[in-house]
Protein backbone atom coordinates (compact mmCIF):
# COMPACT_ATOMS: atom_id res chain seq x y z
CA UNK A 1 0.00 0.00 0.00
CA UNK A 2 1.37 3.37 -0.97
CA UNK A 3 0.03 6.59 0.58
CA UNK A 4 1.10 10.11 -0.22
CA UNK A 5 0.03 13.21 1.67
CA UNK A 6 0.64 16.62 0.22
CA UNK A 7 -0.42 19.82 1.90
CA UNK A 8 0.20 23.51 1.32
CA UNK A 9 -0.08 26.22 3.93
CA UNK A 10 -0.16 29.80 2.76
CA UNK A 11 -0.11 32.86 4.94
CA UNK A 12 -1.98 35.76 3.39
CA UNK A 13 -2.13 39.06 5.27
CA UNK A 14 -3.92 42.11 3.79
CA UNK A 15 -4.15 40.43 0.41
CA UNK A 16 -0.45 39.77 0.19
CA UNK A 17 1.06 36.33 0.05
CA UNK A 18 3.85 36.22 2.61
CA UNK A 19 5.05 32.65 2.37
CA UNK A 20 4.02 29.20 1.32
CA UNK A 21 4.97 26.07 3.19
CA UNK A 22 4.61 22.74 1.52
CA UNK A 23 4.61 19.55 3.42
CA UNK A 24 4.94 16.10 1.96
CA UNK A 25 4.67 12.85 3.80
CA UNK A 26 5.33 9.57 2.06
CA UNK A 27 4.31 6.37 3.63
CA UNK A 28 4.94 2.97 2.18
CA UNK A 29 3.28 0.07 3.88
CA UNK A 30 3.84 -3.47 2.82
CA UNK A 31 0.89 -5.63 3.68
CA UNK A 32 1.62 -9.04 5.06
CA UNK A 33 5.27 -8.41 5.87
CA UNK A 34 4.85 -10.19 9.21
CA UNK A 35 2.90 -12.98 7.56
CA UNK A 36 5.51 -13.61 4.86
CA UNK A 37 8.10 -14.69 7.44
CA UNK A 38 8.00 -18.42 8.10
CA UNK A 39 7.06 -19.46 11.60
CA UNK A 40 10.10 -20.44 13.67
CA UNK A 41 10.60 -24.16 14.21
CA UNK A 42 9.85 -25.07 17.81
CA UNK A 43 11.31 -27.85 19.92
CA UNK A 44 8.96 -30.81 20.23
CA UNK A 45 8.05 -31.84 23.76
CA UNK A 46 7.26 -35.51 23.19
CA UNK A 47 9.46 -37.21 25.79
CA UNK A 48 8.45 -40.67 27.05
CA UNK A 49 10.00 -41.48 30.43
CA UNK A 50 8.73 -45.08 30.43
CA UNK A 51 10.81 -46.02 27.34
CA UNK A 52 14.50 -45.65 28.27
CA UNK A 53 15.89 -45.85 24.72
CA UNK A 54 13.47 -43.23 23.47
CA UNK A 55 14.14 -41.01 26.50
CA UNK A 56 17.91 -41.18 25.86
CA UNK A 57 17.33 -40.37 22.18
CA UNK A 58 15.09 -37.44 23.15
CA UNK A 59 17.82 -36.07 25.44
CA UNK A 60 20.31 -36.28 22.56
CA UNK A 61 17.75 -34.57 20.30
CA UNK A 62 17.20 -31.83 22.88
CA UNK A 63 20.93 -31.09 23.20
CA UNK A 64 21.41 -31.08 19.44
CA UNK A 65 18.37 -28.82 18.99
CA UNK A 66 19.76 -26.30 21.49
CA UNK A 67 23.16 -26.24 19.74
CA UNK A 68 21.71 -25.86 16.24
CA UNK A 69 21.03 -22.33 15.00
CA UNK A 70 19.72 -23.02 11.50
CA UNK A 71 16.00 -23.44 10.92
CA UNK A 72 16.59 -26.21 8.39
CA UNK A 73 18.67 -28.19 10.88
CA UNK A 74 16.00 -27.85 13.55
CA UNK A 75 13.38 -29.02 11.08
CA UNK A 76 15.47 -32.12 10.25
CA UNK A 77 15.91 -32.87 13.95
CA UNK A 78 12.14 -32.62 14.48
CA UNK A 79 11.51 -34.99 11.57
CA UNK A 80 14.00 -37.51 12.98
CA UNK A 81 12.53 -37.55 16.50
CA UNK A 82 8.99 -37.90 15.13
CA UNK A 83 10.07 -40.80 12.91
CA UNK A 84 11.71 -42.48 15.90
CA UNK A 85 8.60 -42.01 18.03
CA UNK A 86 6.40 -43.55 15.33
CA UNK A 87 8.85 -46.50 14.95
CA UNK A 88 9.60 -45.57 11.33
CA UNK A 89 13.29 -45.37 12.24
CA UNK A 90 15.49 -47.37 14.60
CA UNK A 91 17.75 -45.82 17.23
CA UNK A 92 20.96 -46.49 15.32
CA UNK A 93 19.68 -44.63 12.25
CA UNK A 94 18.40 -41.80 14.46
CA UNK A 95 21.80 -41.29 16.11
CA UNK A 96 23.54 -41.47 12.73
CA UNK A 97 21.22 -38.77 11.35
CA UNK A 98 21.60 -36.36 14.27
CA UNK A 99 25.36 -36.85 14.72
CA UNK A 100 26.10 -33.90 12.42
CA UNK A 101 24.11 -31.61 14.73
CA UNK A 102 25.66 -32.97 17.92
CA UNK A 103 29.20 -31.99 16.89
CA UNK A 104 30.53 -35.53 16.81
CA UNK A 105 33.04 -36.75 14.29
CA UNK A 106 32.65 -39.95 12.37
CA UNK A 107 34.17 -43.30 13.27
CA UNK A 108 37.16 -42.89 10.95
CA UNK A 109 38.23 -39.50 12.29
CA UNK A 110 38.35 -40.77 15.88
CA UNK A 111 41.33 -43.02 15.24
CA UNK A 112 39.44 -46.32 15.14
CA UNK A 113 37.80 -45.83 18.51
CA UNK A 114 41.01 -45.46 20.51
CA UNK A 115 41.17 -42.73 23.06
CA UNK A 116 44.33 -40.87 23.90
CA UNK A 117 45.25 -41.03 27.55
CA UNK A 118 47.29 -38.17 28.91
CA UNK A 119 49.47 -39.08 31.85
CA UNK A 120 51.14 -37.00 34.50
CA UNK A 121 53.76 -37.80 37.09
CA UNK A 122 52.65 -37.74 40.68
CA UNK A 123 55.11 -34.97 41.54
CA UNK A 124 53.78 -32.77 38.69
CA UNK A 125 50.22 -33.41 39.82
CA UNK A 126 51.07 -32.44 43.43
CA UNK A 127 52.80 -29.24 42.37
CA UNK A 128 49.90 -28.29 40.16
CA UNK A 129 47.27 -28.90 42.84
CA UNK A 130 49.34 -27.11 45.50
CA UNK A 131 49.70 -24.11 43.22
CA UNK A 132 45.95 -24.02 42.56
CA UNK A 133 45.22 -24.29 46.29
CA UNK A 134 47.69 -21.51 47.06
CA UNK A 135 46.06 -19.24 44.48
CA UNK A 136 42.60 -19.94 45.87
CA UNK A 137 43.76 -19.39 49.45
CA UNK A 138 45.12 -15.92 48.65
CA UNK A 139 42.03 -14.89 46.68
CA UNK A 140 39.95 -14.91 49.85
Architecture overview:
With 140 residues, the chain is of the alpha+beta class. Among the domains are: 2-31, no CATH class; 40-105, no CATH class. 46% of the residues lie in helices and 18% in strands. It has five helices and two strands. It has helices at 33-36, 52-67, 71-85, 91-102, 122-139, and strands at 2-13, 16-28. The protein has a two-stranded antiparallel sheet. Helix 2 runs parallel beside helix 4. The model is unreliable at 1-5 (pLDDT under 50).
**Structural class per helix/strand content?**
alpha+beta
**Strands, count:** 2
| Major sheet description | 2 strands, antiparallel
Sequence of strands across the biggest β-sheet: 1-2
Topology:
Blueprint: E1 2-13, E2 16-28, H1 33-36, H2 52-67, H3 71-85, H4 91-102, H5 122-139
Antiparallel strand pairs: 1-2
Helix pairs in contact: 2-3, 2-4, 3-4
